[in-house]
Specification:
Layout (H helix, E strand, L loop, with lengths): L3 H5 L6 E4 L1 H9 L5 H14 L3 E6 L19 H8 L7 E7 L5 H4 L10 E6 L4 H13 L3 E6 L7 H12 L5 E6 L6 H18 L2 E6 L6 H10 L4 E4 L13 H7 L7 H17 L8 H8 L5 H8 L5 H10 L2
Parallel strand pairs: 1-2, 1-8, 2-3, 3-4, 4-5, 5-6, 6-7, 7-8
């Protein structure tokens, strides 16, 4: 249990990152209206959110531009149409998924772009390729973070090697990512302690991106805050792939820094997120996601179960345990 002072005070280094468009885009193929995106941007400004992630810099050779909304690709001109000169304290981020982006051509020099932060997403086995993306983005003038995905499936010894490699890179922030929503707060505490070792050794900042398969995304995020983790990902109404993420409105309500304001977040949820659900967009905790979280499995089977509108949870459990 954290000391109460760890939860009652605030650190100036804490940053809130809104991932609604990017992680939420995985739910609806990034088909957000410009009105939604513009309202989200303005909400983040009013709420004191530090970074807004617009989506991916996905390869147009790998992905059909007609099959997705524009935030799958995040053309600079599309971002600028929303933020204009972005004369605010809010910074703009996009994600570069290793092996799925043409980063050498699609990520232009920072001085010519509305983007401030490149978030590099990688698995453990693609760390060398991730470092190439990191160095390329850093050389162009960007802040850079790196998300090591699916860490619950990795051996600690392998993760330490990866953290050492990334520590020597130009990445500014290294992220704990509970991709399968399988970790518990006690495990997050141990993982945070390990990440903090490398943060101190290499002068890095640590972040967390939590999924809500076991309804622990918020609990795991505030556990990490108490452990010294500074960059906190969240999405409005928890919108994200499968069970979704740490809810922005929960996080803003928890953080003690007076710069953060929950009221605009509540307005946005009421106006925009409720409408998405009424329009049939589906995300959030359900039993099938609990099952994959407990079993430490990728939620792809649960996502298929959801799309098929199945409710036979016990049969689903038998199916996916038979695959192990």
């Amino acid at each position: 249990m954290k000391e109460i002072s760890k939860l009652m005070e605030y650190r100036s280094g804490v940053k809130v990152v809104d991932a609604t468009l990017r992680d939420g885009g995985l739910v609806n193929n990034f088909n957000f209206t410009d009105d939604f995106v513009r309202d989200l941007y303005r909400t983040n400004v009013k709420a004191g959110v530090d970074y807004m992630e617009f989506g991916y810099k996905a390869s147009k050779d790998m992905f059909d531009v007609n099959a997705f909304g524009k935030w799958k690709f995040c053309n600079d001109e599309d971002i600028r149409a929303i933020v204009e000169d972005n004369d605010t304290d809010l910074k703009i981020a996009v994600m570069a998924d290793v092996g799925r982006c043409d980063y050498k051509t699609d990520i232009i020099d920072r001085q010519d772009s509305p983007i401030d932060l490149i978030r590099v997403a990688t698995y453990l086995h693609t760390i060398p390729a991730a470092i190439d993306v990191i160095e390329n983005a850093k050389s162009k003038g960007y802040e850079v973070s790196c998300n090591i995905m699916a860490i619950s499936n990795n051996q600690e010894s392998d993760l330490r090697v990866a953290l050492d490699m990334l520590g020597k890179s130009s990445a500014d922030v290294l992220y704990i990512v509970d991709s399968y929503g399988s970790l518990y707060p006690e495990q997050i505490a141990r993982v945070s302690a390990m990440y903090m070792e490398y943060a101190e050794k290499y002068n890095k900042t640590i972040g967390i991106h939590a999924h809500n398969n076991q309804q622990l995304a918020f609990a795991n995020t505030i556990e990490a805050v108490g452990d010294g983790v500074d960059w906190l990902d969240a999405t409005y109404a928890s919108m994200g792939r499968g069970a979704g993420n740490c809810a922005m409105e929960l996080l803003l309500g928890f953080l003690k820094n007076p710069k953060y304001n929950i009221y605009p977040a509540l307005q946005f949820v009421e106006k925009q997120m409720t409408k998405l659900k009424e329009d049939g967009v589906v995300w959030g905790y359900d039993i099938q996601y609990l099952i994959t979280g407990v079993l430490n499995q990728h939620p792809r089977t649960a996502i298929s179960f959801t799309k098929e509108k199945r409710k036979d949870y016990t049969e689903f459990y038998k199916e996916i345990t038979a695959q192990e």
